[in-house]
Specification:
Layout lengths: L3 E12 L4 E12 L4 H17 L2 E6 L4 H9 L3 E3 L1 H10 L4 E5 L2 H10 L4 E3 L8 H4 L3 H9 L5 E5 L4 H5 L3 E3 L4 H10 L4 E4 L2 H11 L3 E3 L12 H10 L4 E4 L5 H4 L4 E2 L2 H10 L4 E5 L4 H8 L4 E4 L23 H10 L8 H21 L23
Parallel strand pairs: 3-4, 3-5, 5-6, 7-8, 7-9, 9-10, 11-12, 11-13, 13-14
Antiparallel strand pairs: 1-2
Helix pairs in contact: 1-14, 3-4, 4-15, 8-9, 12-13
The structure holds iron/sulfur cluster (SF4).
The site of iron/sulfur cluster has 13 residues, from helix 5.
Subcellular location: Cytoplasm
EC number: 2.5.1.72
Pfam families: NadA
Amino acid sequence: MQTQSIKIVEFERPQMSAGTSCTADAWARVPQEQSQAERKALKERIKRLLKEKQAVLVAHYYVDADLQDLAEETGGCVSDSLEMARFGRDHPAKTLVVAGVRFMGETAKILSPEKRVLMPDLDATCSLDLGCPADEFAAFCDAHPDRTVVVYANTSAAVKARADWMVTSSIGLQIVEHLHAQGKKILWAPDKHLGSYIQKKTGADMLLWQGSCLVHDEFKGVELELMRKEHPRAKVLVHPESPEAVVAQADVVGSTSQLIAAARSLDATEFIVATDNGILHKMRMAAPGKTFIDAPTAGNSATCKSCAHCPWMAMNGLQNLADVLESGRNEVHVDPETGRQAYKCIDRMLDFAARQKANVRPGSDLAKEQKLFAGIGPA
Ligand code: SF4
């Protein structure tokens, strides 16, 4: 078996009653680096096993580049969490192997309960998920029964089971606009930055859970200003889980798929990118010859917990992927009743997206840039 080291990871855990948040620890298993020859052999083994087991690999943009390439080479997909789930649901394979973090495996299972869903490491989690425990979230909802509960995809099945709507970063704004137009007051969880961004754009009455993504929370507005001075022609691409001071400097604010589309289509050769740097692999493929620079996570105000790469996404490696395919271990299970409840809020979003054709239409800041989205799947 592979040697792995354990990395302690800090994340913000809200204490809603006190109106503050505290930092707690989690951990990630970091796979050992492999030689080129080892990687080549593992890739061949995985390709063979995917065929033998009639399985399909579904990977997120933030995982290791080798896994992204393997997914594409073997007829799987590389995308964001929603498209991963949709792809898995619609693909005829009986076994889905989800290279990502736990909530992605759970969402795939909720949408495809009849399929076997495997993950390279079931302990790969997310600071947004960790920072929103189901029991505390239920108490928060109970305290505000007049509000429509909207949760981000980055939550556990149990939190989704309590929600009226699930949203992703590309469609959250449109759904909140829709609810606001109906006079609904909203309880939003868990990402405070995305919630605040949507609140400002829509003017909706939103009560925000105070969670954050430990990757995006580390981008620094002051240091980004300095970087922009050094690269005056660069366009700034920002995921809305980033802090307000970073979002305010963006040329494009969007989900992962939208940012890749922008990198490909915008008339610029240099980009500063404020999202997990795993996305740069796909951006370089989509826009060869263009230059991509990580937005700064360092500087005087830095505590850099992540250095722009999610420690939990990094738990997905070639070795554990091969082992899981071979052994059938690490199956994702969702309590059937919880899954049935959680399905409703996901299905509501998918239905809304289908009615709005939101899967091919940019939201928010990108509405003027329809051409950016030609050929780009849902975000
Ligand atoms: S990058 Fe952030 S939002 Fe995505 S899985 Fe990691 S901690 Fe969660």
